[in-house]
Amino acid sequence: AKQEGRNGYRFFTAEMQHQSARILQLESALRQALDRHELHLCFQPQVSIDGRRLVGAEALLRWTHPQLGVISPAEFIPVAEGSGQILQVGEWVLRSAARQMKQWLEQGYPPAMTMAVNLSLAQFRHPGLVELVVDVLQETGLPAHCLELELTESVAMHDPAAAIAVVRRLRALGVLLSIDDFGTGYSSLSYLKQFEVHKLKIDQSFVQHINQDGHDQSIVRAILGMASSLGMLTIAEGVETAAQRDELERLGCDEVQGYLYSKPLPAAEFEAFARRHLQQ
Ligand code: C2E
Ligand code: CA
Ligand code: CA
Ligand code: CA
């Protein structure tokens, strides 16, 4: 057992070394990614629960490195958060998404359509955030009500009092706010009420088994009930099947996002999706 333990220990450190080498590699590659135009955005359609209206897009970051290939945001966003690079990357995302949405508005996309952008904790806590948003709206000419900022439940609840103050200042600009991955963190309901965000995004982990798991169904029902009593809209993420959509509709969810309608798409393909969808 002792021998095994030693091997186990050696294996563990080798694994950790491997991981930290990968993190350093990504950090240094990320430093050049913006300048070398290796980053781009994909846009995932958000659709009304009846499937009839395109109501928005979520901007999702993509990175293709010439040698390392496609790197998932689930891997590199945490690295960028750890190194502080997320501030620069996040600013690029915000500017690019706003510019794209402004272009789509000019092309006659539904004016009620919103562009949702993810914010990391470091961005959200940065004292320059409100100014940055003002700046981006001014520079791009995008109306504030077309921009939606997503903060995860854990970002919102990290320091709720401070977060509520920032959310108020952002709301005063006219931008929309949503709480992402809702249900996975530990929201205090009294804080949630004070946030006065526009929308709750129900995490995909509750959607996945909604047709089989009565427990998940109850959680979603409770979230929807709470959102409705607080006057918030709801969107379910990760909707892959018509059966999931039907159940969400029965429970009273407002909007859906997921592979059932579309995966995240490069801008040109999103435009094709929108044209098809607008014709119906
Ligand atoms: P998220 O914000 O919760 O985004 C939803 C994720 O679910 C996306 O993964 C999306 O591609 C995926 N997804 C959408 N529909 C379905 C579905 O029907 N089934 C399944 N299984 N998955 C679906 P993605 O694009 O890999 O992004 C992962 C995470 O990386 C995001 O989770 C977000 O936390 C982070 N991220 C991505 N782009 C940005 C960004 O620009 N800024 C920040 N701060 N974080 C970002
Ligand atoms: Ca999100
Ligand atoms: Ca999410
Ligand atoms: Ca997530």
TrEMBL record:
Limits of the EAL domain: 23-278
Tell me which domain of life the UniProt entry assigns to the organism this sequence originates from: Bacteria
This protein's name: EAL domain-containing protein
Q: Which organism is it from?
A: Geopseudomonas aromaticivorans
Q: Which residues of the full protein are shown?
A: 690 to 969 of 981
